[in-house]
Amino acid sequence: MGVAIIVGDALVRNRKRTAERIQDQKDLSERGTSLQGEPHSKPDSGSKENPVGDVGVGYPAGERRARPILAVLPFDNVSRDAEVDGFCDGLAEDVITALSRFRWINIVSKHSSFAHKGRSIDIRQVARDLNVCYVLEGSVRKSDHRLRITAQLIDGKSGNHVWAERYDRDYSVPFDLQDEITRDVVASLEYVL
Fold first, then answer.
1. Domain boundaries of the chain, sorted by first residue
2. pLDDT of 49-85, one tens digit each?
3. Taking the model in full, what pTM does it have?
4. Which fold has domain 69-192?
């Protein structure tokens, strides 16, 4: 019980810090500088989106956004068990729904993200296609009544891992397991982003 309180307090502190950084970014943006002190120009009203610019995937040319854009891809069913397919899609959909509740992040729609289902493609290309900063991907493996679920947050521009976690769980109650993993992933991403 004490651990949950500590984690909860850490998440609350992180939310406050994130809100302060967003406000600082807005204040600095009005003065024409970034949080790193670099000058940048405000885009003119006719500027086009620059999916692969020097400021990162998902940002308009010349602008740094305070709200990251994230795509959640369907989790891969590595075990090829047909029963797990629905679990994988439901898990990704639950994560999308949970993350969509937060105002500090933009989430790409399920239908846009799921267009990449079953395709083996470079995550940087997926980020460019969806015009996002980050991509959350994962996989699910089943052995008897156990599941191993991995979730990985990937930087859309570099293709590097920002965060990753592995979950080993009993598969006896699938919906409870989906809810638990969704809560864990969302709490972790809220802390990381």
1. 1-40, 69-192
2. 433 333 345 545 555 556 899 999 999 999 978 889 9
3. 0.65
4. Rossmann fold (3.40.50)
